[in-house]
Amino acid sequence: MSLPLPVIYLDNNATTQTDPAVVEAMLPYLTVRYGNPSSPYALGKESATAIQTAREQVAALLRCEAAEIIFTSSGTESTNAAIMSAIAADPDRQHIVTTRVEHSATLKTCEMLAKRGYEITWLGVDSKGQVNPRDVEKALRSDTALLSVMWANNETGTIFPISELVEIAHRKGVYFHTDAVQAIGKIPITLNTLGIQFLSLSGHKLHCPKGVGALYINKKTRFTPFLIGGSQENNKRGGTENVASIVALGKACELARERAAMENEKILHFRNTFEAALLNSISDVKINGDVDHRLPNTTNLTFNGVDSEALLMLLDERQIYCSAGSACTSGSHAPSHVLKAMGISDTQARSSLRFSFSHFNTETELQQAAEQITLLVKKIRNLAV
Ligand SMILES: Cc1ncc(COP(=O)(O)O)c(C=O)c1O
Q1: Pocket lining: 179 vs ligand 1, CB cutoff 6 Å
Q2: Model pTM above 0.90
Q3: Which end of the chain is more exposed for a tag (fewer CB within 10 A), N or C?
Q4: What is the dihedral of CA 317, 321, 327, 328, to 10 degrees?
Q5: In whole angstroms, what separates CA 246 from the centre of its chain?
Q6: How far is CA 215 from each of CA 5, 16, 76, 184, 300, rounded to the nearest angstrom?
Q7: What is the pLDDT of residues 196-236, one digit of tens each?
Q8: Which of 73, 76, 187, 226 gets mutated to test ligand 1 (max ligand atoms within 8 A of its CB)?
Q9: Domains parsed from the chain with CATH numbers
Q10: Is 74 in the pocket of ligand 1 (CB under 6 A)?
Q11: What is the DSSP letter of 173?
């Protein structure tokens, strides 16, 4: 019997391996420390204190005040809550500006609002996936309720010029939300001087378990709760808190803050070495995204003449996991909306793969993955001739 192949996980923008230190921190809140944080006795207070510590840990990573953080179930909930609160702030503002390359949490929420009569301006991007601040300037109006632009794109890693966009939004008196799910822990973020209204983040991209997120709400911003019920989260999000996961998110943020500088250097080195290996050994490969403004852990590559689904399946058999960066529904593999918005043809978009790394990767496994990808790309191309 052959030994099982070790997993080579190169899909860290989809989700991340849970950090053992994070699991250790949350475990007591799944076992002995089960008190309801709203209960007045010691067991409950213990949970309430743990939530407050986690709030401070998240705030320390984002450089904002702890009172500006609420915990949610996900990045998706945070984004929904931000958008719905922004439109509730002034019913006369019925216009939203966002980009064509957002995550579905933003895209679908805006599409739903369009059906309810809101006007949405969908900003296009250039061939690097970058938004043009001049387009933003032109799009914002006196009835714009919100400008929502992600901090970094999940498929290409392109980082948007957030400070510049915030400055425009300020000048035009428009609320700003950013989906920073992919940016948190990978690049430095300082909210106390940025002056945005909302920021969404998600635990499972940060070596924390799935099903927990956070929303930053600027202390000067009026907030209308998305989930109505109990008075949890300072009346901003009803529902008994997911204490263990919140503790986990706090710990993950603390680790990210302590390790970020060192680990992101290492991850950048991994990414660049891996990219160079593929570019050197395979002909007709192209990097998608803004190579000068890119998350250190992400590379999105087009292998011309290669069906990315076929490559993905062959890699899957070898337990090398990455992503086609496209929605695959019942066998038909739709080209990525992000790559399409960048002007990449459907065929090229269907020949693209995203690789995203974390500090759990090793140099050896990246070498092995690059070798396998090189062999498989050549194999698929040879079959096609
Ligand atoms: C950019 C971006 N926004 C939002 C989300 C959604 O986060 P969650 O899975 O916590 O709902 C994701 C997850 O893939 C993402 O990449």
Answers
A1: yes
A2: yes
A3: N
A4: 10
A5: 18
A6: 39, 20, 10, 12, 28
A7: 999 999 999 999 999 999 999 999 999 999 999 999 999 99
A8: 76
A9: 8-16+260-384 (3.90.1150.10), 20-256 (3.40.640.10)
A10: yes
A11: T
